[in-house]
Specification:
Layout (H helix, E strand, L loop, with lengths): L2 H12 L7 H8 L3 H13 L4 E4 L5 E4 L10
Antiparallel strand pairs: 1-2
Helix pairs in contact: 2-3
Length: 72
């Protein structure tokens, strides 16, 4: 899967409202953790309202007060 497809898939995953660890996202999309971190940074820089929570049980999710338009 190319980067654009991966970014769209990430947005779709985050739209579910769940919290995801970098490892889980990397495994789901078959990329390295480093690639996933670059993709998450890119989405954040592009304006996606991501929140990162450190520690056990933490991960990345969309900020609840924001939402993304549904994918068509």
């Amino acid at each position: 899967m190319n980067r654009t497809g991966r970014l769209l898939e990430l947005l779709a995953l985050f739209h579910t409202g769940k919290t995801f660890s970098v490892a889980d996202l990397a495994d789901t999309l078959s990329v390295s953790k480093r690639t996933m971190l670059r993709d998450l940074h890119f989405l954040s820089e592009a304006g996606a309202p991501l929140q990162a929570s450190p520690g056990p049980g933490g991960g990345y999710r969309l900020i609840r007060s924001h939402s993304l338009a549904p994918l068509a």
